[in-house]
Amino acid sequence: MVDLVVRNGRIVLPEGMITGEISIEDGRICRIAVSGLPKGDQEIDAKGRIIIPGVVDVHVHLYDRKFPNREDFASGSSAAAAGGVTTVIVMPWDTPIVSGPCIEEVIDLGCKNSIVDFALHAGNMSAETIKKVPEINCFGIKSFKAFTCDPYQMSYDAIEELMCYVKAIGGVTFVHAEDQKVLSKGIKALKRRKDPMAHAESRSNEAEEEAIKKVLKSAARTECRTHIAHVTTRQGCEAVEKAKEKGSHVSAETCPHFLVFTREDIERLGPYLKVNPSLKSPSDRAALWEALKNGAIDIVSTDHAPATKEEKEIGWTDIWQAPSGVPGVETFLPIMLSEGVVKGRLSLEQLVNSMCTKPAVLFGLYPRKGVIQEGSDADLTILDLNEEMKISADRLHYKVGWTPYEGMRVRGLPVMTLLRGKVIAEGGKITVAPGFGQFLPR
Ligand SMILES: [Zn+2]
C-alpha cells in the first residue's frame, strides 16, 4: 500500500489541468491518474480545491548571525510553509557566505531548524572571492550573488570575471543591478532631505536600466547564465527582453511588493516600504505585470528581508538610517493568487510556471522540485481559490511581527502544504517539527 493518496483535486500538471488523484510513496510522487488509484495508508480529500507544485522562492533572506531579531530558519521557514512555499534558496544578508566554515554553519542551522527544504546562494561576492567559486561549488552551491552598487559593490569588470568562473562550473550569476554612479548622483541631490520619499526618489529608473544593460553585455560576452534580481522598471524589462532576443542565457525576477505597491504608498507606509531597489511608478508596475505575463520576466520571488519595527521606525525622522527590505514569504502565494490569478492578470498555469517550475529549472532543482510528475518530490500546495482573508501580521509567523500588506483583502489561499509527502502546514498552522527541511545540494 502506498503512503498517501490525494484525491478529487484539480491538479495543475505541465500539460494542463486535470481532476484526478496523486499517490505518494517514500516522499515522491508515485502515480498520477484521473481515477482508480488503490487506497493509501493515508488519504486526503482535495474536493473543490486546486493542487499546485510547492512554491519555490529563490530569493529569501532567512538568517544572518548579525540579525537574530529579524528572522531565523525556524521562524522564516514556518512562514514559508504556512504560505505554501516548500523550497527556499537562502540568500546571504550581510555576513558573507563564501567560505567552507560559514557555509557549513548555515547548512547545519538549516538542517536543524528549517521546516522547508532549502538551498543556498553564495555571496555577497567581491573581487577578492571570485577565485573561490570552484571551492564554494564543492559545498553544493551553484549560484553567486553580486552587486553593482553599495554596500557590496563590485566593478562591472569584476562581475564579468566572476561570470567566467561561474560559467566554468555551470552555475548562475545572480545580480543586484543598480548603477552606483547614477545612484550616487541621485543620493547626493536628495541626501539633505530625510523623509521616506527621498530614498525612493534617489534610486532612479535610469540606475536600474544602466546596470542591467552593462551586466547583460557581460553575460553575452561570457555566455554565463545570469539572473537579474528584483526588476522594478519598464526599462529593466525591455533590456532583459532585448538580451533574450539576442540569445543570452539571461533570466529575471520581480517581487510581489513591486507588483502591488508604488511610490504613492510610501506616503502611508513610510520606512516600512523602504526597499532596494525602491518602489517605482504605476506605469512601471503595469509594465512588470505585462512582462511577467509575456515571459520577459521569468519568475517572481520575494526578496524576503525583514527588519524589526524599531529599526524601521527610525526612518520616519531619517529615512537614510532605516534598513531596507520587507518580509514577504508567507504572503507571497496569497498575494499572487489574489492580485494575479483572481484579478485575471495571470492564468493559474502562468502563476505555477513563474513561482514553481521556472524557479526550479533556473536554479538546478528541477525536476525534483517545481513540478507535479511521477518521480518528483511530493511537494504539493493545496489551494482554495474561493477562500478570503484580510492579511494581518498577528496570523503570520514572521519574527518581526509586521507586514506591508496589513489589512489587505486577498482571495485565494493555500490551505495545506505537503513537503516530500508529509503535511507540513494546514490552515496556517505548522504540523512538523523544525528540522524536517533538508539541504538541497546543487
Ligand atoms: Zn535580496
TrEMBL record:
The keyword Phosphoprotein applies. It comes from the Archaea. GO terms for biological process: purine nucleobase catabolic process. GO terms for molecular function: allantoinase activity. Keywords: Phosphoprotein. Gene3D superfamilies: Metal-dependent hydrolases, Urease, subunit C, domain 1. Residues 50-423 form the Amidohydrolase-related domain. GO terms for cellular component: cytoplasm. Belongs to the metallo-dependent hydrolases superfamily. Hydantoinase/dihydropyrimidinase family. This is Amidohydrolase-related domain-containing protein. It comes from Hadarchaeum yellowstonense.
